[in-house]
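As a representative case, we now present a protein record of this kind.
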Amino acid sequence: MGWPAADAGYCRDSLFKRCGETCPAWLGNVMRTHWGVDDPARATGSDAEIDAAFVTAYQTLRARIEAFLALPLNELLHDRARLKVELDRIGEIF
């Protein structure tokens, strides 16, 4: 699978990828952060335990996305160091 938007000359401010994939190579001054989430499809145990793994993954991703959307991006885009701190902090939300 390619990256047609990048090939078409589009600029991305943020890129979210699926777990387990290799990060694409982006040229230039890119900022990276890692928001790891256990893959619920790999959960084992009872049906209730597997369901709980999916609920946990969903709740974690939702909390992180909400925190990202709540960031004062207009301010942070001018302060890359602070933006990196905030993105890393969001990656710790469980």
Observations:
- Helices lie at 4-7, 47-70, 73-76, 80-90.
- The chain has four helices and no strands.
- Confidence is low (pLDDT under 50) at residues 1-7.
- The longest helix spans residues 47-70.
